[in-house]
């Protein structure tokens, strides 16, 4: 009794009738903290109380009693509590720890990131997809069978199809990289390949074998290395779990705000397509729209601050997101709200017209296309070209793309008045590294200005396609001669060659699908409905040509070629979809027809 009296300051009286049963955890936690303060002021003595505050999610008590300045917290004291806060979705504690001594650069290693992915709930779609890819790698090593009833690239399956044996294995960064590649497509280079020591172009099967070898070497040395961009890694981890508050917190910390928000929008929309539960699908779509709104809002602020810098923001390649740009990610995410922003529309119009004035009439383009010498007259107005400055670290070309992916270079973006002085300063490199490229001759520069503009390519493509259809119709109606040796006619051979060029264009499209492998490129190519239309037209044309070469199938060949002409004509719908008046009507009509065909 005497010892209790001497330590009466540690006694806390709790009256359940007056204070309520809900306040018991608050009273208990405050009593424990008060007792620890009387014993020692060392932060290590308060770790249990901190863990209890995290478990009860009482960030208010932690701020008032543990992080009020009386205790000097160190990194080692907060490390375990930070992990608990991340796993148990306590974003307020994560923010509190980062503000009071925890350095995220020293916290997040590749091994800890893998442990965070291993802690995902078994019911989460992200965990299902990760376990499926893990089982594929383990089946390749011969240690585990593949997922029951799932194909290697299958993505749609119920949550109960995951093998329990595969769930007990550790998920590595390679499985995370494969999942992100499936969700983001070829917009970004593979994530975490550099940490694993893989080349970005390494085949999936080769990478799986290489990782299996690394796994046998005492879990690999890459796990002890720190993440180069920890906030982005945690942001992706939170987005895959559809955690709203946690993902927004990491989005604020990650940097690249516009691109990060668009990337989250893309990931969530792809996950929502694979999710079978209605509630989870709805929340994913809502969070995806929230991130699109954030991207639109942040870009709007940037556009109001500086128009030229906001343009550069849209076409700048981000090293944090595998060399992706905002425009590429917005296109992949189908971010229509983002594209409707006036600033984005202005840049797209500038890219579309190149160095030509945006008020140029279409008839002038057609006339210049048909009579090229007219581009050297005053028929079309062009922007004046400045001398190009090439430094040792920067190479800017007037009409070429940036790294071959963007149709507008940095120097093509006109600076506003407030940016002129700064741009002049930035364009003055040291004398020894400065090299001024001589100005191109007028004939060459004007030629590049006209023919390198995307609008010129489009107008030329439309004109040539109409000419192709006219030639096709003329051959069918007038110049379709009997089988050999009387036919085909010379114009029909021209038609054959023209179709051959269309085949070459389709082959070029398949080879242009980023860094994907052949089967992946073909799969992505086939997914586009207009590519299916093109393939159908080409195959029908080949069938018609083979049939018309023999007397017994000549009429059949002409009938097939007539049907093929109708398929080629359908391609005009895709061409006219960009028209201001026809485009919306075509889209509405297409949706109406789809609903009628799919309606029971």
Automatic annotation (TrEMBL):
<dbReference type="InterPro" id="IPR057366">
    <property type="entry name" value="TRPM-like"/>
</dbReference>
<keyword id="KW-1133">Transmembrane helix</keyword>
<protein>
    <recommendedName>
        <fullName>Transient receptor potential cation channel subfamily M member 5</fullName>
    </recommendedName>
</protein>
<feature type="transmembrane region" description="Helical">
    <location>
        <begin position="559"/>
        <end position="578"/>
    </location>
</feature>
<keyword id="KW-0812">Transmembrane</keyword>
<feature type="domain" description="Ion transport">
    <location>
        <begin position="465"/>
        <end position="597"/>
    </location>
</feature>
<dbReference type="InterPro" id="IPR005821">
    <property type="entry name" value="Ion_trans_dom"/>
</dbReference>
<feature type="region of interest" description="Disordered">
    <location>
        <begin position="410"/>
        <end position="434"/>
    </location>
</feature>
<dbReference type="Pfam" id="PF25508">
    <property type="entry name" value="TRPM2"/>
</dbReference>
<feature type="transmembrane region" description="Helical">
    <location>
        <begin position="450"/>
        <end position="475"/>
    </location>
</feature>
<feature type="transmembrane region" description="Helical">
    <location>
        <begin position="533"/>
        <end position="553"/>
    </location>
</feature>
<keyword id="KW-0472">Membrane</keyword>
<feature type="domain" description="TRPM-like">
    <location>
        <begin position="65"/>
        <end position="341"/>
    </location>
</feature>
<dbReference type="InterPro" id="IPR050927">
    <property type="entry name" value="TRPM"/>
</dbReference>
<feature type="compositionally biased region" description="Basic and acidic residues">
    <location>
        <begin position="422"/>
        <end position="434"/>
    </location>
</feature>
<dbReference type="Pfam" id="PF00520">
    <property type="entry name" value="Ion_trans"/>
</dbReference>
């Amino acid at each position: 009794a005497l010892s209790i009296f001497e330590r009466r300051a540690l006694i806390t009286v709790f009256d359940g009738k007056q204070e309520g049963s809900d306040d018991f955890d608050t009273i208990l936690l405050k009593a424990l903290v008060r007792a620890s303060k009387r014993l020692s002021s060392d932060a290590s003595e308060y770790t249990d109380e901190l863990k209890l505050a995290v478990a009860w999610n009482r960030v208010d008590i932690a701020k008032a009693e543990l992080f009020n300045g009386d205790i000097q917290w160190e990194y080692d004291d907060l490390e375990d509590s930070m992990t608990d806060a991340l796993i148990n979705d306590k974003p307020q504690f994560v923010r509190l720890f980062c503000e009071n001594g925890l350095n995220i650069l020293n916290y997040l290693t590749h091994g800890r990131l893998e442990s965070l992915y291993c802690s995902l709930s078994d019911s989460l779609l992200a965990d299902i997809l990760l376990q499926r890819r893990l089982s594929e790698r383990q089946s390749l090593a011969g240690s585990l069978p593949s997922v029951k009833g799932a194909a290697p690239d299958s993505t749609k399956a119920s949550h109960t199809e995951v093998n329990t044996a595969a769930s007990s294995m550790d998920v590595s960064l390679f499985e995370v990289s494969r999942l992100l590649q499936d969700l983001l497509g070829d917009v970004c280079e593979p994530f975490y390949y550099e940490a694993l020591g893989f080349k970005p172009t390494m085949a999936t099967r080769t990478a799986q074998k290489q990782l299996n070898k690394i796994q046998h070497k005492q879990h690999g040395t890459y796990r002890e290395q720190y993440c180069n961009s920890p906030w982005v890694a945690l942001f992706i981890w939170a987005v895959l779990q559809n955690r709203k508050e946690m993902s927004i917190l990491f989005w604020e910390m990650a940097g690249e705000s516009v691109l990060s928000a668009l990337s989250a929008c893309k990931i969530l929309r792809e996950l929502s397509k694979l999710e079978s539960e209605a509630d989870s699908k709805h929340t994913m779509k809502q969070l995806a729209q929230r991130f699109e709104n954030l991207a639109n809002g942040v870009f709007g602020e940037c556009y109001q601050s500086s128009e030229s810098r906001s343009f550069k923001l849209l076409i700048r390649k981000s090293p944090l997101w595998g060399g992706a740009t905002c425009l590429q990610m917005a296109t992949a995410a189908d971010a229509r709200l983002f594209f409707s922003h006036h600033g984005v529309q202005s840049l797209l119009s500038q890219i579309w017209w190149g160095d030509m004035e945006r008020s140029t009439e279409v008839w002038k383009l057609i006339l210049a296309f048909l009579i090229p010498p007219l581009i050297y007259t005053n028929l079309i107005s062009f922007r004046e070209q400045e001398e190009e400055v090439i430094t040792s670290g920067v190479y800017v070309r007037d009409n070429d793309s940036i790294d071959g992916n963007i149709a507008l270079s940095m120097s093509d973006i006109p600076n506003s008045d407030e940016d002129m002085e700064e741009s002049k300063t930035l364009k003055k490199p040291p004398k020894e590294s400065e090299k001024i490229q001589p100005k191109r001759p007028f004939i060459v520069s004007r030629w590049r200005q006209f023919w390198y503009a995307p609008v010129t390519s489009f107008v030329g493509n439309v004109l040539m396609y109409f000419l192709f259809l006219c030639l096709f119709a003329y051959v069918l109606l007038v110049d379709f001669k009997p089988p050999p040796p009387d036919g085909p006619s010379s114009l029909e051979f021209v038609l054959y060659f023209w179709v051959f060029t269309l085949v070459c264009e389709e082959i070029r499209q398949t080879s242009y699908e980023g860094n994907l492998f052949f089967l992946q490129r073909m799969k992505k190519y086939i997914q586009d409905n207009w590519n299916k239309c093109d393939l159908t037209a080409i195959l029908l044309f080949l069938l018609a040509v083979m049939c018309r070469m023999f007397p017994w199938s000549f009429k059949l060949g002409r009938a097939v070629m007539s049907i093929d002409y109708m398929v080629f004509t359908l391609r005009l719908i895709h061409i006219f979809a960009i028209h201001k008046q026809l485009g919306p009507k075509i889209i509405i009509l297409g949706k109406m027809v789809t609903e009628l065909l799919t309606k029971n």
